[in-house]
């Protein structure tokens, strides 16, 4: 169990018409109950699909400088939508000794159950990556066998097809 003094709160909404105050209130309430001090609240108004989120990037920079020991969000999808991206983030969190808490989903890596949840997610992500790899290899093999290649499925020139023999056997009649 890690000793948590300072936490970062990250909130995000996708559009200006949405309000992140409820997210902030939920995270603050959780921190108050747990006795965590809030280092800073990072708030973005940007799509979760966007790879460049200014406040999120600032939070990661501060994390790399060990300014807090945990990141608190309302839901997992506030920090990312791609499982692969989430897992790479969790690897970095773990390497920096930073815990992750999603208050409305009971994900809390300060607990054994929370760590187990993350490991299970990691196993599913690895399984998904392996399936994608297998399908890609099967697709390439199929494309090669039907004589197609590339994105636009350009027909290949077949090599080694029926060619005239280099020699003529004595038994053949012409």
Describe this structure in words.
The protein has 174 residues and is α/β, with parallel strands linked by helices. Helices cover 41% and strands 18% of the residues. It has a domain at 6-125: Rossmann fold (3-Layer(aba) Sandwich). The model has no long low-confidence stretch (mean pLDDT 82). It has 4 helices and 7 strands. It has a 5-stranded mixed β-sheet with strand order 2-1-3-4-5, with helices on both faces. A two-stranded antiparallel sheet has the order 6-7. It has helices spanning 21-34, 54-64, 83-95, 112-145; strands at residues 6-13, 37-45, 70-73, 99-102, 107-108, 148-149, 154-155. Helix 3 (83-95) crosses helix 4. The radius of gyration is 27 Å and the shape is elongated.
Strand sequence of the main sheet, in spatial order? 2-1-3-4-5
Q: What is the CATH third-level topology name of the domain at 6-125? A: Rossmann fold
**CATH architectural name of the domain at 6-125:** 3-Layer(aba) Sandwich
Helix content: 40-55%
End-to-end C-alpha gap: 88 Å
Strand content: 15-25%
List keywords for this structure.
single chain, 174 residues, alpha/beta, Rossmann fold, five-stranded mixed beta sheet, two-stranded antiparallel ribbon
């Amino acid at each position: 169990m890690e000793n948590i003094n300072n936490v970062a709160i990250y909130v995000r909404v996708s559009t200006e018409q949405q309000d992140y105050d409820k997210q902030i209130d939920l995270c603050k309430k959780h921190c108050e109950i747990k006795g965590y001090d809030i280092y800073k609240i990072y708030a973005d108004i940007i799509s979760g699909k966007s790879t460049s989120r200014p406040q999120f990037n600032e939070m990661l920079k501060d994390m790399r400088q060990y300014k807090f020991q945990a990141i608190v969000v309302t839901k997992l999808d506030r920090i990312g939508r791609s499982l692969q991206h989430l897992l790479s983030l969790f690897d970095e969190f773990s390497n920096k000794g930073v815990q992750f808490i999603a208050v409305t989903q009971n994900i809390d890596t300060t607990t054994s159950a929370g760590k187990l949840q993350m490991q299970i997610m990691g196993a599913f992500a690895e399984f998904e990556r392996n399936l994608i790899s297998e399908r890609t290899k099967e697709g390439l093999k199929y494309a090669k066998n039907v004589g197609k290649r590339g994105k636009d499925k350009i027909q290949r020139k077949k090599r080694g097809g029926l060619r005239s023999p280099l020699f003529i056997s004595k038994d053949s009649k012409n």
